[in-house]
Amino acid sequence: MMGVISDAGKVVIFFFRILGVWKRKSISSQLMFEQIWKVTMQSALTTGMAGFFVGAIMTIQFTMQMKDFGALGYLGGLATSTTIREVGPLLIAFMLAGKVGAFTSAELGTMRVTEQIDAIRCLGADPIQELVLPRFIAIVISSFFLLGLGLLLSIFGGILLGEVFSGVSFEEYLRHIPTIVSLPSILTGLFKCFIFAVVLAVICTYRGYTTTGGAKGVGLAVVKTAVGTMVTIVIADWVTSLLADITLRAVLGT
Amino acid sequence: MIQFKGLVKKFGDRIVLKGLNLSVQKGEILFILGTSGTGKSVLLKNLMGLMKPDAGQIWIEGEEVSSFSEEQYLPIRRKCGLVFQQPALFDSLTVFENIAFGIRRHTKDSEQEIQKKVTKALGLVHLKNIENKFPSQLSYGMQKRVSLARTIALEPKVLLFDEPTTGLDPVTTSAINQLILELSRNLKTTSIVVSHDMRCALDIADRIIVMDQGSIIEIGTPEELKKSQVSLVKDFLSEVLEKEARQ
User: How far is A112 from chain B, CA to nearest CA, in Å?
Assistant: First the structure.
């Protein structure tokens, strides 16, 4: 238990170190755009596919619940609202954790054990500024692009299954989306997406940056990233759900 | 030029450097020999500010640097160049970009000047026409040379080599050792070489120190070392003599 608390503390300190470097030093826009492109493209296909099937699953699940009440007209609105508010951000975070998180910690870990990070310091540069910060920002920004892509495809998947499985037409599926998908749902989704991306970015960069012990150490860093991000994201989901609900009720009076 | 005073470095309960005292003279080639895990590389990393000592002082050209921050260390890292045990080249950058990396960060040189420095550094390690290649397209020996070129491109006053010939075949080992001698003499640098290679140390070092369990157990010129009665030094020497007898 003490180990977990100590690790969590080190991750928080590392997060503030990243923020400190961001505040004090400039960041190469070329490096950052390269990373945003890389992260987005690395995960676009899997996120899109997962989004499509989540939409399809939501449609099937809601159909089974709602058809007895004769409320299938609300199918599109409910499935989309749930995806935006809860499943979408969580799905994107898990996808990113599996692909980008593992990749980033392995990449930084390899750079650490092959002394490339020390070499950067010896050559007069700050590895946090050169390596960590561009990856950190890229993961956060890309997660919003991927959320958008995942949502679009989930609506598409929902429409398709709505037609085939539930007998709900294209127009009917879309009709209640604007009425059910409220501003609080969208804001909650965006807030969660941001928090999960920050959690993922800081854990995977920390694990990679602090890797020790050769190839075995890199493997261990990847495993710790995968486990750490999944667990922390689930906990963060609970906390953000609670916070978002309280905040939005207070601000919007909903 | 460089002084270590009572340097202590611990990793957990393990004391790697036990109050080490050492002076390095300007322009000399100093070899540090010893078995694995005796703190040789740790000494170089402390000198470069990559690790902080737990106690003691490090003096470089009259400045005590052991408590320097990362920012304060920048000019020290311009003066001292470390060639790592592994090539430590940046995989995603070409040879040119690897060598230019430090120049861009330490100087305000124009692209033309950077180009000249890169070509010159590659020339010094006897490489040419590989500027556009990526590290993965080079042999391990060539990567080591590029790593050396990257360090000397900044024209450091002190060159630090961390086991520069580990993992190399005998021919490349000999070529790298020759390069160390050439560079140290031609560029008039002070060189500290961490190595296991007693033969090379006897050939090119001005002074040799032998470390064991975090302390210096012998120090002297190659001739003085040949007469040493310290058992570890004798072991190192007998290995060299046996190899030579076999040849």
Answer: 9
